[in-house]
Design goal:
It is built from 3 helices and 19 strands. By secondary structure, the protein is mainly beta.
Length: 247
């Protein structure tokens, strides 16, 4: 119950506004009130090390937000541009499918008009992501970033992530077009932080061979660029970034 009480106070403090109409608030410090968390009496202090007491306003007890957060091992940050208080990590730790968190179409990487990419798109559903030429049984996936018309010229486009995720996992696949003699000709897949130009993934893959990518670091990435090229011959094909999961 003590944890629940303090957590509730944190939420209430974050929601307090300075808008008060007509009424005059009566506020007093309350050094006699003890705050106990997990059996330990808390001595709250401000950023300068000075003692901070609870405050009672019109019969409601308020606690210093930063001190309470510190007691629970949480950092507190203030964004003056948006008037936002953040408690704990500001990034999203929940896993999500990349095609779900990027609602817009991929944009052309080098276009001043911000038009949609001609080559990069999102696909979902087993009907379009069932592959029969990989092993002895059909291999099925639920979602993918798809790059079409892979040849010697780089095909690419980007999605906006807005720095919300830390890692990404996916499976890479290159499928040559039907009728091409590309048994020994692979493709190169590049997944890049578009703002810095640093490659997150730079992988050569053989035709019809699955390559697993696990938990690559995407911390702070605002725009993620997806690109595919052929490594040698000029045969067309399609690159899939399958089941791209971010968290």
């Amino acid at each position: 119950m003590k944890k629940k009480f303090v957590t509730t106070v944190i939420i209430l403090l974050a929601l307090i506004t300075t808008s008060v109409s007509a009424a005059v608030l009566q506020a007093t410090t309350a050094p006699n009130i003890k705050i106990v968390i997990d059996g330990v009496v808390q001595n709250f202090k401000d950023a300068n090390g000075n003692k901070v007491d609870p405050v009672v306003i019109d019969g409601v007890t308020y606690l210093p937000l930063r001190s309470v957060a510190d007691a629970f091992g949480k950092e507190v940050s203030w964004d003056g541009n948006t008037s936002t208080i953040t408690i704990g990590d500001s990034t999203n730790n929940a896993s999500a499918n990349l095609i779900d968190v990027t609602s817009a179409k991929a944009k052309q990487t080098y276009s001043s008009s911000n038009v949609d990419s001609l080559y990069v798109s999102k696909v979902s559903g087993e009907a379009s992501l069932t592959f029969s030429n990989i092993g002895d049984v059909d291999v099925k996936f639920q979602s993918a970033i798809k790059i079409i018309k892979i040849d010697n010229a780089k095909k690419e486009g980007y999605y906006e992530l807005n720095g919300s995720y830390k890692t990404m996992s996916c499976t890479l696949l290159f499928v040559p077009d039907a009728g091409t003699n590309a048994k020994n000709d692979g493709a190169r897949v590049q997944i890049t932080n578009l703002d810095t130009g640093v490659d997150i993934v730079n992988q050569t893959i053989e035709p019809n061979k699955l390559i697993q990518i696990n938990d690559v670091d995407i911390t702070g990435v605002q725009k993620m660029n997806f690109a595919g090229t052929r490594t040698t011959l000029n045969w067309n094909g399609t690159v899939y970034i399958l089941n791209p999961i971010v968290k």
